[in-house]
Q: What sequence folds into this?
């Protein structure tokens, strides 16, 4: 944190507001997405916007003690009160937000469930984001016929595949996952040359030194594991920084016996849901999922792990590969039903319905 970055943050939000003001119509509902634009609602209100404005936070809302370390914490809390509806991914996020308001004596919870902050009344709710389940399932079926993926299937023939898909970010726990996979192979020497991890990690924020350092760290770790365990015709970790389209990803998910989704913390993590949606119902894979991902609250058929404990992740990976077909189908079916009932359309419709039912600002 520094004052220059704070100034830039607010300047960007003012620019958004100035561009948006002449564009919206009286009957429009405005939906603002994620932490980058928390101040936008206030900026619009100060310019006279009286439309319904909603905000959805894709990342976790931190506990009160952690948020208190952020110099802007009270400003951010107050800025959210300018929205009519504030949405979170999980109940924990909503509870953390409410506790932040209480600790700072900023808000009063009304009898109807709304919050009152400095004379501004707004509502909060939990709206776990979903995916287009049917579309992703269809992509996975189509992808199995693609020539490029057929080549991947041939090259990995005889190997059980675990897959991880994450943008390059410290919160995703990619380095710890690779360490855990190494420990899995150490514990299961019979799986050497018979199992591999496909780790797809598109570059992210490459101009930021910390992300460049992370990229170098992960590449060196992959090189170390492959150098120590690999043979002429097999390496344990296939690591790529190339982006893949939805259809190609869906096909790779379907190929993988195990999905390793082990972020250190995540608002939801849609990769977990995509992996489940892409599976073959007759022979589904197993999802190994961080207990600190928002998706853990919905995907009860996943094998939950603490991503900070590589031994536990290694043991759960072993459990996933050894799981019987009957148990795999049972777990997958429960997760698939959850995806069908909570897809992206229900998320969108549910949020907008609650926002459109909000009282217009005075």
A:
């Amino acid at each position: 944190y520094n004052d220059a970055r704070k100034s830039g943050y607010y300047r960007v939000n003012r620019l958004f507001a100035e561009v948006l003001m002449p564009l919206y119509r009286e009957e429009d509902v405005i939906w603002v997405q994620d932490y980058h634009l928390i101040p936008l609602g206030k900026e619009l209100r100060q310019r006279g916007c009286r439309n319904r404005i909603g905000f959805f936070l894709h990342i976790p809302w931190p506990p009160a003690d952690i948020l208190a370390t952020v110099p802007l914490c009270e400003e951010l809390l107050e800025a959210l009160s300018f929205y009519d509806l504030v949405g979170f991914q999980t109940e924990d996020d909503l509870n953390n937000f409410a506790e932040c308001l209480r600790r700072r004596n900023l808000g009063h919870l009304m009898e109807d469930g709304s919050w009152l902050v400095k004379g501004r009344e707004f509502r909060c709710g939990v709206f776990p984001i979903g995916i287009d389940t049917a579309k992703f399932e269809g992509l996975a079926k189509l992808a199995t016929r693609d020539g490029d993926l057929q080549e991947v299937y041939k090259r990995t023939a005889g190997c059980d595949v675990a897959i991880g898909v994450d943008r390059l970010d410290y919160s995703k726990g990619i380095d710890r996952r690779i360490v855990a996979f190494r420990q899995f192979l150490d514990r299961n020497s019979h799986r050497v040359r018979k199992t591999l991890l496909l780790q797809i990690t598109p570059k992210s924020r490459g101009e930021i030194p910390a992300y460049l350092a992370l990229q170098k760290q992960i590449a060196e770790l992959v090189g170390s594991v492959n150098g120590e365990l690999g043979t002429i015709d097999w390496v344990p970790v296939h690591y790529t920084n190339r982006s893949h389209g939805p259809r190609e990803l869906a096909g790779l998910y379907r190929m993988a016996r195990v999905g390793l989704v082990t972020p250190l913390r995540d608002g939801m993590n849609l990769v977990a849901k995509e992996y489940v949606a892409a599976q073959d119902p007759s022979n589904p894979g197993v999802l190994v999922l961080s207990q600190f991902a928002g998706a853990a609250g919905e995907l009860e058929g996943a094998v939950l792990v603490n991503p900070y404990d590589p031994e536990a992740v290694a043991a759960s990976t072993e459990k996933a590969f050894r799981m019987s077909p009957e148990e795999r189908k049972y777990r997958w079916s429960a997760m698939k039903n959850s995806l069908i009932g909570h897809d992206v359309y229900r998320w969108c419709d549910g949020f907008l319905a609650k926002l459109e039912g909000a009282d217009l600002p005075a």
In short: The chain is about 45% helix and 15% strand. The longest helix spans residues 209-229. The two ends are 35 Å apart (CA to CA).
